[in-house]
Every structure is written in structure tokens, then in C-alpha cells.
């Protein structure tokens, strides 16, 4: 079964092609008279329908009457062809509206023709003009060429072409001139052809919908098309299909309107034919005049009804998109502008150590202080040297609005759109500077911050917490005193800073001849033979002094010594890697104690113990000299009971890996009581005595070449 037959069966339509023997009602291919599928021959012309179905040639006519009837039927097709176009247009355009007066007349004539056609004699049919036959044949040929798989537009074009063949103005004769049988047959044909024309329109629309599913469907309400006609109430449907639709319309008028319906194929075909007629014919009849305005009105009203629906749907879509965007923006903003997220971003900026960015992310909690890239540098210096401070502060601000030291805060500050805005704040700090001079000048990072009325105690601020270089200068005794400190000021720190300006003059001694002296890590000079008197210094709390030198290619330092407020002070700073003054004092004290014991005749003379203090032992010149003195003191004629020795080391120096010592020895000789001699006291000074450099086994090399008696009581 082809596509066209399927459409017919699915929609329960009648057969429509002039030569097609489909299911249902159709008409004779020879004369056009209405027949049924059960008929074997045409009742009008006697055409063998069975032979036509089987494709066999028609049998020869048996009588002249049959031939005459066939000829008459063929000739009668021409006058009825002229009525086909008129009736098709009238029925298709007015399927949904009131029938015109002309349609009513056609219907009445068609019904009377159906009744009277059988009784009319075939011989009564008049002769017909050959042009009529040719026009009918051309129309039939055009309609027969319609294929099931053709484009709907091509089918419509062929229908229009067939209509133009059937409606020439000079085609046919007036109905009044035809015999009764011919008029009845023509009426029946006109009614039947009108039904088939509507069926063709139905199939065209079905083919259009099946081949072009993307074509949009239009919707019209039952009242969308209204034709004004004075004769509409009296008109009757011309065909069975029209009468059936008219009955349905009458029933629908008594019911309330439920919902808009789709445009029917009849309406669509009627509109197409009406447009074709208007293009071809310069004038229209009274019944056709209202059709075009009514269709245009229906289309405009339909467009107006459809447009708000599309517009409303468009606004619904836009509204949903806007809601989704707003919801997404709200969720993003809720996270982005949360307190923790804002705090994280603020501390990320602080970690950059960029003064411009830091001054933008922080504000001062004091209206008198405005944060700028310049005054934020001290805070950056502090956080750069103490990165742990930022981590600790951030952790504290996660739980509270301020850090424990009160320096930083994180508080509400307006809104970002609908979200709460938070601001990182820094509390400014103040300091009190105390000095012992009446009018000091105070500088903070090189900027003079001295009070308008200088005094020994001044309050400075506000300034941003951080690490500063603080300098105080004053004039006294024609001498300028200056003191500089690198201080870190945080809000919770002590508020008073002691910057006393007091001059001190330390004298530095060391066991290294040419060491360098440093005070608070500042170079103050180099020792000369292990000694240096420093120029007047401004005393500072916790001022430290130390020495540096190179021994065996390595830089060594002494232990730091704290300076006091005393104007004159001696400072001994020895290096532990070479013999120190204390070590030399201990060595010489033990040596002379052994010698003192040996001078007493009552004690044993342990020469081996004495020789152990000398590097060369008993061969040392210093040992031999001291051993001679002991021998003389132990002699019985010396009247010496014993001799005591007191050693005082003045200086020990190491230079070029050689250690020298300067010391003095006081001899106190006691005589036996029976001699009547007085105690004699003598003091000898030794300069440049040599010691070994091994601190673990310190020994005397010699007492030098410079022995000098510096004191003698000249007793006895």
C-alpha cells in the first residue's frame, strides 16, 4: 500500500483521484457519474468497471444505445466541469462558516438532479462544444498526475491549474438550456466533485504534515473566521461531508468554548484557493467578498493570541535565568564575603610585605592617624623579622575581634552589597622618652618628633606599631651626646623608655696586644699593647663591650662585658684561647709558694717540684737563679728563718703566638729571733717574662732580661 492509500485509510477519507478505484465512494472514469465499489458497471454509461480494475480492454458495445449513452455521458462532463471549480471554491471556503446563497442554489439543483437523473432519457442531452470536452479532459489529466510522494506545494499548484482549466468564462451553456436529465446529472456531479475537492485538500494537508514535520502549526479558535452573509441562515450544505460538518457546528454552538483547535484542512485549502482566485479574477461575487478580510482578520487575531503566549513564555525563561544567576551570585558572595574568607585575604596581603598594599588593607583605629605606605614600613619590618607574629595574630582573630596584645583588630565595617564587610585595624601606640638632660631632641626613623616644649621627659605619638630607629641627642659641656636604639614598639609594651645621656670613659685591658674593641657592636678602636682608653661614651642601658682578634688564622672574641654608669672604669677582657692574666697569676703564685717553703730550713728542699714550673726544668736560667736564693736562705749562717713571696701580674700579652707577662714579686724575709735582725721587704718588677702559649700546660720560659728592684725597706 502506497503512502497516499495509507493516509486515506488512517483518516477514513473517500477516494479522490478521477481514475483511482480506492475504498469507499468514487465516480466513473468514463462519464464521471457517482458509483460504488460494489458496482460492476456504471449505471449511467455502462462502462465495465471490472475490466478497468483488472486492466483489460473494454468489451465492444452491444448496441447503439450503449454507444449513444456513453457519448452523451462524455459530452456531459464538460458542462459539469465548469461547475466543479465554482462548487469547489464555494465549498472549501465556506466549510467553517455560513453557506452563501449561490451554494444553496447549487445544493438544491444537485439534490433535484440526483432524484430526476435516472428518469431523463439519454437522447435528451444536447450537443456540447468541443472546448468543454477539451477543458474537462485537461483538468482530469492534471488531477490524475498527482503522485503520493509529491511535494505539497506542487500538489496545490496542480489543483489550481485544474481549477483554471475548468472555469473559463465562456465554458458551457446556461443551466436553463439543458434538459432535465442533463441538469440533474450535472448537479450530482457538481456535488460529488465538491466533496472530492475537499478530500483532496484534506490529503494535501496530511501530506504536508507528514513530509514537513518542522512546519509550525497554527491554532485558531472556532470564532476566528466569520463571514458576513445575509443568505447564510438559509443556505444548506451542498455535500454530505459539508452537511456533516454543519451539523457538528450547530452542536458546538450550544456548548461553551473549551480550548482553541487547530486549523482544519478545509480552512487551509479554502484560504489557498481564495488567494489564487483573488490573484486571477479582477472582481469577486458578493458571497466571496467578505472571505479575504475575514481570513486576514482571523490570521491577525490568531497571531495576537499566539504572540502573548510566546512573550509570556520568553519572560518565564528570562525570569528563571535571572533567578538562577541571582542564586549563584548569592551563594558565591556568601562564601567570598564570609568573615573567615575576608580575614584570609587580608593576612595574605600582609604576608606580601608590600607597603602600598598593606596600607590599603589596614586602617588605623585612631582618627588622628592615617595609614600610608610610608608610616606602615615599621610594621612591615617587624612582621618580616617575626613571621610567627602574623600566624599567631590570625589564629587569635579567627576567634575574637582583637589580638591579645591589642595591636590588631578585625571588626565590621559596612557592607559589600548585602554581605557584611570586615576591616583589619591596627591600634596606634604612644611612647614616653625619659632622659637626664633638660632639652633633648628625639628622632624616629630620621623624623624629628620632639615635643613643642622639649623636656627631660617627653611623650611621642601616635605612630604605627613596629620596629623603629630611635635617636636622642643633647648638648652638654660643649659636647654633643647622642644615643641611638633600635626598638620594637607594640601596643602592650612598656610605655616609658629610658634614654639617659651620661658620658663614661672605660679603660680596656686584654691578654692580646692588638685586639679590636667593640661597644654595642660598634668599632671603638684597637688596643695598643693590650690596652685602650676609650673616648667619652654616652651610657646606655645594657651596653656591651667585647674584643675581637685573629689567632692562628681564626677570628676569636672575648666574653662581652656590661658597662656601668661610672665615669671612669677599668675593663679586663681576655681571650680564653691564649694564656690569660688569671692563668699567669695562678702559675706564678704556685711557683713562688714552692720556693717560699724551700727557704725554711726546717722544710725539705724539693728542687724537682720547683723545676716543674719551668719549661727547661733545672736548666732554665730563672730556675737556677731562684735555686741559688733558696740555698743561701737555708744556710745556717744566714740567720734567715724563711722568705715569703707575693706575686702581682700586671699584664699578659700574646702576640705572634708568643706570650709575655709583666709581674712584680715582693720578698718578705724573716730572720731568726736570736739574730736580732729586722724583717726585710723588697719588691722586684719583671717585664717581658716569657710563658708558653699552651693554656693546658702553662710554664715559665724565663723571667726576661729586665729585672728591676722597685722597693726596699733597707732594714738591717
TrEMBL record:
Residues 173-186 have a biased composition (Low complexity). Keywords: Membrane, Transmembrane, Transmembrane helix. Residues 508-571 form the TcaA 4th domain. InterPro entries: TcaA_4th, Znf_ribbon. The keyword Membrane applies. Residues 28-49 form the Putative zinc-ribbon domain. This is Zinc-ribbon domain-containing protein. The chain crosses the membrane at residues 315-337. The keyword Disulfide bond does not apply. Pfam families: TcaA_3rd_4th (PF22820), Zn_ribbon_3 (PF13248). PANTHER family: MEMBRANE-ASSOCIATED PROTEIN TCAA. Residues 100-126, 170-306 are annotated as: Disordered. Residues 100-118, 227-236 have a biased composition (Polar residues). Residues 187-201, 294-306 have a biased composition (Basic and acidic residues).
